[in-house]
Amino acid sequence: MEPLNPEQRSLRARIAVQTSWANTLDPTSRTAKARAAANDRFETQARALHPDASDEQIERIAGHLKSAHFSRMALASAKSRAAKAKRPAAAAAA
């Protein structure tokens, strides 16, 4: 069997993930543990920054920490896309 090229591997992965989600009746419950763990991470950071804060304040701060995290990720993604767009076509294909 001939090895798959990157495009074919990507397509195979997309087929697998779509099949997996098609077999999931309740997607919210499937991802609940991961979402809880992520939220706990931001709450832990908030409590480390402000140990005397109330639960309401911690919730607000954790929300801001989460927004900042995703904004940093968006900025990194935008920089990466811009750098790729500046590369010559031959270098991008390599």
Write up this protein.
The protein is an all-alpha fold. The chain has 4 helices and no strands. The chain has helices spanning 6-22, 27-49, 55-86, 89-93. α2 (27-49) crosses α3 (55-86). The longest helix is centred in the last third of the chain and has 32 residues, at 55-86. The chain is flat, with a radius of gyration of 20 Å. The two termini are 24 Å apart.
Features:
single chain; 94 residues; mainly alpha; 4 helices
Give a quick rundown of the structure.
By secondary structure, this protein is mainly alpha-helical. The protein has four helices and no strands.
Number of helices: 4
Measure the end-to-end span: 24 Å
Radius of gyration: 20 Å
**Strand element count:** 0
SS content category: mainly alpha
Helix content: over 70%
Low-confidence parts lasting 5 or more residues at pLDDT below 50?
Answer: none
